[in-house]
């Protein structure tokens, strides 16, 4: 990882969403639903949902990063896990902010793959080491990314909870 960082602003995020959505549309893919990987994927799913006119948005909570460059051994799905009945025979677009190691996306992709008609992935950033090569990528980088929603520390720390930096 380089010492310099990729800085995404909210304004640039808007540009990224339009361009990412255009790539999906140009490919002819028409998802029935967008499955966001929380937390960073929530922003991406919302932006893509509006741009692609998809109102059916779902959330999957996955914990992997515990700090800058610090992860659990493997990503873990947190409850509530989406019902496979909700995914059945649907064309699903999995949305996340970054495919870093790709382990989180792989976990979600594998969960969906057995239950959906088709699954594709869309991310703002993809890193070269990602296990998953995403279908739609706005930008490829090997640098650490400062996202506008996570660059500042929380305004409050909740008792008994770990504070995640990513």
From TrEMBL:
Q: Does the keyword Transferase apply?
A: yes
Q: Which UniProt keywords apply?
A: Glycosyltransferase, Transferase
Start and end residues of each Phosphoribosyltransferase domain: 13-151
Recorded hits in Pfam families, A to Z, give: Pribosyltran
Entries under InterPro entries matching the protein: PRTase-like, PRTase_dom
Q: Which organism is it from?
A: Spinactinospora alkalitolerans
User: What are the recorded GO MF terms, alphabetically?
Assistant: glycosyltransferase activity
On whether Amino-acid biosynthesis is a keyword of this UniProt record, the answer is no
Name this polypeptide is given: Phosphoribosyltransferase domain-containing protein
SUPFAM superfamilies recorded: PRTase-like (SSF53271)
């Amino acid at each position: 990882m380089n010492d310099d960082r990729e800085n995404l602003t909210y304004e640039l995020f808007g540009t990224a969403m339009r361009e990412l959505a255009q790539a999906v549309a140009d490919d002819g893919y028409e998802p029935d639903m967008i499955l966001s990987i929380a937390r960073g994927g929530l922003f991406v799913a919302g932006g893509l949902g509006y741009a692609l006119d998809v109102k059916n948005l779902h959330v999957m909570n996955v914990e992997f990063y515990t700090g800058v460059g610090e992860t659990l051994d493997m990503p873990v799905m947190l409850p509530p896990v989406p019902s496979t009945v909700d995914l059945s025979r649907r064309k699903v677009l999995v949305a996340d902010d970054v495919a870093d190691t790709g382990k989180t996306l792989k976990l979600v992709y594998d969960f969906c793959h057995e239950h959906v008609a088709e699954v594709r992935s869309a991310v703002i950033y993809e890193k070269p080491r990602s296990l998953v090569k995403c279908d739609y990528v706005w930008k490829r980088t090997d640098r650490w990314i400062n996202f506008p929603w996570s660059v500042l520390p929380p305004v409050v720390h909740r008792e008994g909870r770990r504070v995640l930096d990513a």
